[in-house]
Amino acid sequence: MEGIGKTTLAKVIFNRLSSCFGKCCFLEDVRGKSSKANGLVDLQKKLLSEIGHLQVIRSIDEIEYGMERIGEMLCNKKVLIVLDDIDDSEQVEKLVGKSALYSGSRILITTRDKDVLPKFMKKYHIVDYEMVMMSTYHALKLFNRCAFDGGSHLDDYNDLSRAIVYSTGGLPLALEVIGKYLHDKSQEMWKETLDELREAPHDDVFRKLKISYDALSFKEQQIFLDIACFFVGEDKTNAFYMWKDCKYSPETRVDVLISRSLVKIVASNKFWMHDQLRDLGKQIVHLENIRIPKDRSRIWIREEVLEAIKTEKISEKVQALYLDESVCNSHDVVVQSKEIGRFEYLRFLKLSQLSLVGDIDLTKLRWISLVEIYKWTNIRLENVVVLELSKVEFLDDLRLQNLTKMTRKLKVLSLQDCHNITRTPDFFECPNLERLTFQRCSKLMNIDGSIGKLNNLIDLKIQSCHSVKHLSEDIGDLVNLQCFFVEATKVDKLPDSIWKLKSLHEVHLLDKSGQSYGWQIYFNLNELFEDLDVLEIKNCNLKGLLPLEVRGLHFLRILNPSYTPVYEVLETSIMRPPLQRIELMQCHWIQELPTLPTSLTHLSVASSLLRVVPNLSNLTNLVELTLCVCGREGDELCTSQLRWIGRLSKLTKLKISLPQVPVPTELASLRRLNKLDLFGLDMQTFQDLRNLSVQRLFLRSYPETSPSQDLRNLSSLMLGGSPMQELQLDGLQLPQLKELHVKCQELLRLRLSRMSELKDVMVDFSPKLVEVQLSWVFKSLEKLSIVCCDSFERLVYETNDVLSSPEGRLIFPLRVLNKLRDLKLVGCHKILDIQVVGTSESWKYIYLDNCSDLQSLGGLSNLKNLKTLDIKNCDSLRVVEGVDELESLDHLWLHHCASLERLIDVSTTKLPNDCNSWITDCKKLRGFENEF
User: Fold this and answer.
1) Is CATH 1.10.287 the right assignment for the domain spanning 206-286?
2) Residue of higher predicted confidence among 792 and 134
3) What is the pTM of this model?
């Protein structure tokens, strides 16, 4: 993508390495210069002038001749050449020729397109490097250098600087442009700019990023805009079905977007896009018509969606409407079918929490998703390929059957939380169905036998449908079924026919009943599952061994089998390449591990009977490793001291729970290690680790003196199981720590300081905790959670001008905690009073539960932007002050507060019109009726 720092990094590398080469040349902005008349010839001349002779240059007047001269030079000289901003393979070919390079030469290319290398260059050793985003520390450093011209800045600008860096996603281009723009500007201008950035990218940044968008074809642009507006963080599958039916060729087009670093497909097949690119896409759509939403191609903001729907004129431009349930909570919104029918070219429609009246007939519609629709409608699904229905209480067996009639193009049918469905429809009406999901449909009992006629079905999921008692043997007729996912409690036997399906790639058999025996699953040892890629079994009673031949297995997961000699399973020939992931959790019969294939990238083992932890140093491809032994004494376990762990250089996540085994000091050599979880080990050697590079650290037991390492990269720390009564983290160097989670049974006092970046503090299940001490540097604190700390009664502030809370009274001075956003107190029985002092525009959320002695909550009128007030099971609470002045309040939930008498002035003042209140069992409350 544009502006991420490719050219800057290339210049740094060029300057550092140029002294090692005889001749060097840096060709900057090849894309821009080659687009001009004779541009490539001029670039060839520049290259030859720096690696060749001037007399050669005068004779070059056409590209082919220039290629020949360059080829002659490059095969005889050790050179370093940088080709910056290449967007076409022809540019590479014309500038380096086709001749062999001299031994030791290096060509460095920066590009937004991964596929720019000519085919003839594939014979060389090629190393790809994908740019990664800057850390917060370096992003702030770059921004401050531009905004303050390299000088020092006032503390008053700290929070604004961080907010601006966050809003840009750390993109160097945006940081440089905005930093220079704000140089010598007032705080008011900074605040205005920040507000604008939260809405859309800066104009200069927008123009430069749009270069990548403008280079796309029309269909690629449409897919890019769809992802930016609707699908970031969403599974790609359904979007591909829609695009394919619209003739957009998604496989090819998305590959182009990926190769140009405009989008990524990350874990679980989800779309990922940089924040600035997402905002670019939304801004492009917004600029289609700034004033009139119905003249844009896509609409996703609630007010604009409703405005467009209520417009009487026919719209020929809107392709997609998205009214998300997270922003719409009104039962009063009624949409007439004729209003939806005005959008003749609508292909994607998602509506939530409203009433639909009348029949919907849109011939261009390809994807329709309805969530919490309060009145039923008939929808013509002639061209729909994706149909999703969730929490639609009006949907019953007859309506579902009518809905699926004439759906011959339907590819995806997903029903979630549709509790009035008792049987599946007759599937003869939708023969092209490929993906079928029933999730949390509590009354669903029967799977129609016609399911066996779905010859195109590749994915079948039946999850948490607890009334399903048996599965039809017709499932064995699903000749193309690739993924079979079943999670239920009343199915006592799987259909025998399932093991006839040779096309299965994934089998997930999960029983969450919690019963001791779970499902009875019989495996035929003679079956061959040549294409099986994923096998997952949980809480099931395996009555046979796994198939002896599973040739293509990549992921084996067995969780808590009720009864099986699992070690026999492990001895089968299943344990061989290309197996990449093994998860054997709560498999308490495993005593030893067999020889494991070197192809493994993920390994998790948890067993109470494990006798030997083998040397796993041969598993050099491991990225994640979990080894847990519970309920055994250290002298019963043979471990080889874990020194081999230093050879697993690719590890990013490591979790070890081994009784009294010394922490291996080799952990410090694992430079890619990002997350480390240690439990039950001998922590004395942990003190010897230096420069541990992890970002997330979980210590579930540690010495009575807190660790003293330099953990400058640490962003998340969890401490638990310590016998210490007072925890002081002063000895740790934690400049980047953002999350702290403490869970200690004996802890009396927690003292926090020297962590200026700390945003989230949680203390839970520490029943003896009395106080938390906070120093003045905690102006960054956003979330504070105290959960199940029975003795907690005060906060102590280490400042000269702020009074600490007396016993039983919590005082929140917002001048000190000026970034606090969320407060959560659960099971804090000694708190009598909570008082907010000062004014805050950041505080959004208060959650109080089971604070049995709490009597009053005051000062809420100072919280100008509080969105949610949720109070439960506070039997002694009598007064909540200031609720009537909370103009931004969206949710007021009061449950089981039997002593609550008043919310100040509610008898004469109403809550905001948009506030959703839910009050139950507050019998003494005046001014409100108890309601659901």
Assistant:
1) no
2) 792
3) 0.65
